[in-house]
What does this fold into?
Amino acid sequence: MFTRINAYLGLAITTFLKRKVHFFLSVLGILVGMITLTIVLTITEGNKIQIQKTMESMGTDLIWLQFPLGISLQDAYRLKAISEFESVAPLNSTICRYNSGKYVLIYGIDENYFKIKHYKLNSGRLLHHLDVVCQKQVAVVEGSYNEATVDLSNERFKIIGGVELKYANDDVHGSTIYIPITLVHSPVYKLFIKMKKKGDMLVKTKDVITRVKIMFPGVEFTASCAEALIKTTKQVNNLIMSLALMLTGLILLTGGVGIMNVLIISVKERTREIGLRKALGATSQDILLQFLIEGTLITFISGSVGLIVGLICAYTLSRFTISLPVAINSMMLFTSIFILLLVSVFFSFYPALKASKMSPAEALTGQY
It folds into this structure.
């Protein structure tokens, strides 16, 4: 059996080399479909993993509130009275001229911010409670720093520490500077809350919304958590994946029809060859197996090439586009290849069956 299959594989390769145009037309649809599917799968998977890591780095036990109109710092600290909250970190921001040059984003924070956001200290120290209470003109910068001081809108601040660049896109050192929140004279627009006990954060978020509404009646705000954003991201990714699979399915369907048409033409052109093989003792099963192997081999070659080209394209896009991560979902790719092989067998069966039913006499005289 294996000897016969090897012989048919060799015969199929020889046929492809003789009929290069037919072979190219056969593989084109499947090739494009597999490239498209691979690119979409790798980018979608990479995007999902990156967003999940980003959300988890924010803290799985964190809930953040956003106030479009802002609230006072005193009102923000009133939330500390809620026993279920381990700590509260208000955040406000402004833009200042940096060393009489470019403008930079200034975050006003207290001593809890870096702790609950899990920032790593690169050098120096973080803000202390006294820095905030006494309104000391000190600053913490992102990344590394060489200067001892920094001028922000004609005010000189002493640089006391540097923290890691938190996210992949923060590739500009010094893009954000952190100073005591009591020095930034603007309302608090964002508030981070760390819960004492972990649990279902979606349920806890709803509970926080209820408590904040009671504490600040009539104040407009939104609440969210990493779990909610991850859930939303998964839904969006699943939608993109479904649309991509539908599109790829249509392309593969078109490619399968193309393979079937090319094989039908091939059967007609090779009628005498089929008749001669049958006259020399080949059975209908042999002819059926021969053309099934040809159709499957066409699909396997085009699918494999499409997979490799798709991975190269995805990683090339990722290299030249910072915000486009890629990752391989092996299970999805293996499933795609399996479906591809099923498509090849399905669309190759009719031409193969037609070839196997030829009678030697009709085939040799070209009357089939």
